[in-house]
Structures are given as structure tokens and as C-alpha cells.
Specification:
33% of the residues lie in helices and 9% in strands. The chain is an alpha+beta fold and 137 residues long. Helix 1 crosses helix 2. The longest helix has 22 residues, at 47-68. The termini are far apart.
């Protein structure tokens, strides 16, 4: 990446160096380069590289929207909020198997507290879409 240095900061650094040696006419090209090299600089990306990344991002967002109906902001896709196992009511009754892994009573899968599945139901919520398919109506 290229370095970006403010012109005024470079001029100030070179002038202060010249004043420090009391003879500005003795400031060599190497001294000036030393001043510039030691200035704080920001890494910047060339505009062509930035434009390429922006184009790839926009293409990916467009593809996600076309294929899956999702994107960045705007209209929300047909989704539901994920319930992690640690927040699921079934996690409370999970038992350990012989290997020491927790088994979810709803899915029968090995779980950790950060997992999630389509059976997830928040402990503090109980409406129709939160019910397990085997629960009585």
C-alpha cells in the first residue's frame, strides 16, 4: 500500500529540522528525506484497488439478493431470529451422552451452548412458532 503524508506536515517537519541546525542552507537532500521518512503516515489503497473491491462487494451483495433474497439493509428476507442453545428452553433438560457431550432433547443432536437449530425456542417465550413439532397442540 502507498503511504499518505499531509503536505503541510512534511513542510513543517523539514522547516523545524532546518531551524534546529541553525543553518537552513545546510539542510541536505538526505536530511529532508529523513524528515519525510519519519513522519507518521497512513497506509492508503490505490483508487483502482479500492474500486475493484467495491465492485466485487456490490456484485456479491447483488448475487445474495437475487439468489437468497438477502442483502445489506433494505427489505428483510423471510428470516427468524436465531436462538442459541444456551438461551433455548430445551438446553435446560439436555443430558450428557457417554462421551460427555450434551444431547438436545428436541433434535437428538450433540450441542454446545453456541449452537442453534430449527427447534430453538427461547426460555422466556412460548408462542406457536416456538413449539417443537412433537409438542401437543
Amino acid at each position: 500500500m502507498a503511504d499518505y503524508i499531509e503536505k503541510e506536515a512534511a513542510k513543517e517537519a523539514i522547516l523545524s529540522w532546518a531551524v534546529c541546525i541553525n543553518h537552513p542552507e545546510l539542510l541536505s537532500k538526505e536530511d529532508a528525506m529523513h524528515c519525510i521518512d519519519n513522519l507518521p503516515a497512513a497506509d492508503v489503497v490505490p483508487k483502482a484497488a479500492y474500486d475493484q473491491v467495491a465492485w466485487e462487494r456490490d456484485l456479491a451483495v447483488k448475487q445474495l439478493h437475487e439468489d437468497y433474497g438477502v442483502g445489506l439493509g433494505g427489505k428483510k428476507a423471510d428470516t427468524v431470529k436465531v436462538v442459541r442453545c444456551k438461551n433455548c428452553r430445551y438446553y435446560q433438560t439436555a443430558k450428557s451422552n457417554k462421551k460427555g457431550f450434551l444431547i438436545c432433547p428436541a433434535s437428538g443432536m450433540e450441542i454446545t451452548e453456541t449452537d442453534y437449530c430449527s427447534y430453538g425456542a427461547r426460555m422466556d417465550k412460548e408462542d406457536d412458532h416456538d413449539k417443537h413439532p412433537s409438542d401437543p397442540l
